[in-house]
Design a protein that fits this description.
- The complex is a heterodimer of chains A (594) and B (53).
- With 594 residues, chain A is α/β, with parallel strands linked by helices.
- Chain A has a domain of 258 residues: Alpha-Beta Complex (Spore Coat Polysaccharide Biosynthesis Protein SpsA, Chain A), CATH 3.90.550.10.
- In chain A, 49% of the residues are buried.
- With 53 residues, chain B is mainly alpha-helical.
- Chain B has one helix and no strands.
- The longest helix of chain B is centred in the last third of the chain and has 13 residues.
- Classes of the chains: A alpha/beta (594), B mainly alpha (53).
- Chains A and B meet through strand 3, helix 5 and helix 9 of A and helix 1 of B.
Chain lengths: 594, 53
């Protein structure tokens, strides 16, 4: 069966990305060394050049994904004519202290959407509860009755709650396979906030049937339902930029693709045979249960010879995102611990080299802010290490030798780094305007405005997020386990006091950093201001960006034309919230009435 | 690698209301670690304790 990206295309894409990133990183390294050489090379120059080398490599690697993504278009694999499904798929909905009304409204909507395809008999829903709070668990049971009644879900919709939530989400899924896995050919793994169109789900099962070597098929979920400034900016970026970056990623990953833990379908036997996760030796955060299990499961499937693929042409796959920076940072703390924990797995026997690289890439994505921070601190301290200027370096030569002015090299380096940061997004905007894709986002003018606004907002947020990430990495390295906090969903508006409570230490760091720079290296103050000012005003930034966004900026196609399954969910949710009593007549609320 | 065809899958009778079908699938634990695996903790902790001294 033909598939989107063969091994040769993936190898070529990886090589191109690697060569470009190494050239960019090497160029930045040499440019900085030359700049440092102008007043005499010292140890701090070499340290800073090393920080620049790693950071630039990482930036160039990300930029290359966008460039690769723009070089091709998402295309479906070649498939035989569709003659119906012959398999059965379990749709797994793991829940952990979630609002059951909202979660079940998504299930009801997906069920109605599946019924419209005519293939709903091939799909069962399994609500896998790991909820620890008894009052929420009681609601889950109560609303499950209503879900069954309204969807005629008898024998198709199941609910179970684990006594112990060992292994967290991975353990929850594993428990399903150990109990019921053999009853199904495939399992579509969702998150509690996942939503998928029925025809997308059917198409995924069709592709799994068509390619018997395919172990896992991942979709690219679009972020929806955001209403806050921060959330809508992320939603725009996920809708506008991510498909291009994901296309580049898919080209690089080829047959050893990604698994992001949800909105993906797996072959049950392949998953069960390959993905039983052991506890890692030692205590958390590095030992114990594997937190970011998805990357590991993708690597294990590839190790066993199964194809793991991202089909970015599949639309109709949705998720929700954090509405404010604090919720984003909480989720990121969990991901940080999970990615750093992969340092214990990167040397696992038999893994594909690309999967090992993906682990290293994940680790690098979390420790790279430390390199930038290290570069800043080394730059502030550099004047103390610089050798005194010697205008008469040649003995006996009567005329002074002035150091050459290498300022242009520093400016060139800064332009290059900002180019790697901003140019990919600007190129995506230009590509959208010329290809007509911009029309779906409200037109070229709005796309240009949204892109600029996103660049400004992400530049302001970047130092704040850098501090949160740095704190997360330090906590993990020092042995602090972040646990398994419940995701905050819904309205995420933060008052100034709440924002201050979450960011006061960032303000303090910003003030101290700026004061130290003023004292030690006053010439660097203008360079530091774009980083220090957002840190100092972090409480205002966090609070302001958490408030509702009322402009057309960051408009996405799904805000203009919501997907049918989103409208179905809206109707179920509105009706259930208006009438929370479980109806005695099971016919109430059948999809035909919706 | 073993290829799985749909006919190999057991399809149980309609299960009782609300209960998941009883059709177990074994998930053997995979080997993920080596004795001398690379560890960030191993890398950083000695450096930090030295810095502390």
């Amino acid at each position: 069966m033909a598939k989107a990206n063969g091994p040769s295309e993936a190898s070529a894409a990886r090589l191109l990305g690697l060569v470009f990133s190494l050239v960019a990183a090497g160029g930045a390294f040499l440019l900085f060394l030359q700049f440092g050489w102008s007043d005499g090379l010292d140890a701090m120059d070499i340290v800073r050049a090393a920080f620049i080398l790693v950071s630039t490599f990482w930036l160039a690697w990300g930029a290359m994904q966008a460039v690769l993504g723009m070089m091709s278009r998402a295309k479906p694999p070649a498939l035989p004519p569709f003659e119906g499904l012959s398999t059965r798929t379990a749709i797994l909905v793991p829940v952990y202290n979630e609002d059951p009304v909202t979660v079940y409204s998504r299930i009801a909507a997906m069920d109605a959407s599946l019924k419209a395809t005519g293939y709903s008999d091939h799909f069962h829903f399994a609500i896998l509860s790991d909820t620890r709070k008894d009052d929420i668990a009681a609601l889950e049971m109560e609303w499950y009755d209503r879900l069954l009644a309204e969807c005629d879900g008898e024998g198709r919709m199941f609910y179970r709650r684990r006594e112990s939530n060992a292994g967290r989400k991975a353990g929850n899924i594993e428990d399903f396979f150990q109990r019921s896995g053999a009853a199904y050919d495939f399992a579509l793994i969702l998150d509690a906030d996942s939503l998928m169109e029925g025809d997308t789900i059917v198409e995924m099962a069709r592709r799994m049937e068509a390619d018997t070597t395919l172990g896992l098929l991942q979709t690219l979920p679009k972020v929806t339902r955001s209403t806050a400034r921060f959330g809508r900016a992320m939603q725009f970026s996920a809708s506008f930029h991510s498909p291009i970056f994901a296309r580049g990623l898919a080209m690089m990953q080829g047959r050893t693709g990604p698994f992001w833990g949800h909105n993906a379908i797996v072959r049950c036997r392949a998953f069960a045979e390959s993905c039983g996760l052991p506890e890692l030796p030692g205590k958390p955060p590095f030992g114990g249960h594997i937190m970011s299990h998805d990357y590991v499961e993708a690597a294990l499937l590839a190790r066993a010879g199964w194809v793991v693929r991202l089909d970015d042409d599949l639309a109709g796959s949705f998720e929700e995102g954090p509405e404010n920076i604090v919720d984003h940072a909480k989720r990121d703390r969990r991901w940080c611990q999970g990615n750093l924990q992969h340092s214990k797995i990167v040397g696992a026997p038999g893994l594909r080299m690309w999967n090992r690289f993906v682990f290293i890439q994940g680790i690098l994505s979390y420790i790279s802010p430390l390199f930038w921070l290290g570069f800043l601190m080394a730059s502030i301290a550099a004047p103390w290490f610089a050798p005194p200027l010697n205008y008469f370096p040649v003995e006996g030569w009567p005329f002074p030798v002035f150091p050459s002015d290498e300022t242009w090299k520093a400016i060139g380096l800064a332009i290059g780094i900002f180019g790697l940061l901003f140019l990919p997004k600007l190129l995506v905007a230009a590509d959208a305007m010329t290809s007509g894709r911009a029309r779906r986002f409200g037109g070229s003018g709005l796309v240009f405005g949204s892109t600029l606004a996103e660049l400004v907002l992400s530049s302001i947020n970047a130092p704040i997020l850098m501090m949160f990430q740095t704190r997360s990495v330090m906590q993990v390295v020092l042995g602090a386990d972040g646990g398994w906090p419940t995701n905050n969903r819904g309205d995420g508006t933060l008052a100034l006091g709440e924002s201050w409570a979450a960011t006061w230490w960032i303000v303090l760091t910003g003030v101290c950093g700026l004061a130290a720079t003023w004292y030690l290296a006053p010439g660097l103050v203008p360079w530091l201001l774009p980083i220090a000012v957002p840190m100092i005003v972090a409480p205002y930034v966090v609070s302001w960006t958490s408030k509702a966004s009322t402009t057309r900026t960051f408009l996405t196609p799904l805000e203009i034309n919501p997907s049918p399954v989103m409208l179905l969910q809206d109707r179920y949710l509105a009706r259930w919230q208006d009438n929370p009593e479980v109806p005695s007549d099971p016919a109430v609320g059948q999809p035909a009435h919706i | 690698m073993t290829s799985v065809t749909p006919s190999e899958t057991q399809t149980p009778d309609t299960p009782p209301r609300g209960s998941l079908p009883e059709a177990p699938l074994a998930m053997p634990k995979q080997v993920l670690t080596r004795e001398s695996g690379f560890s960030l903790r191993k890398l950083f902790l000695p450096l930090m304790s030295r810095a502390g001294n």
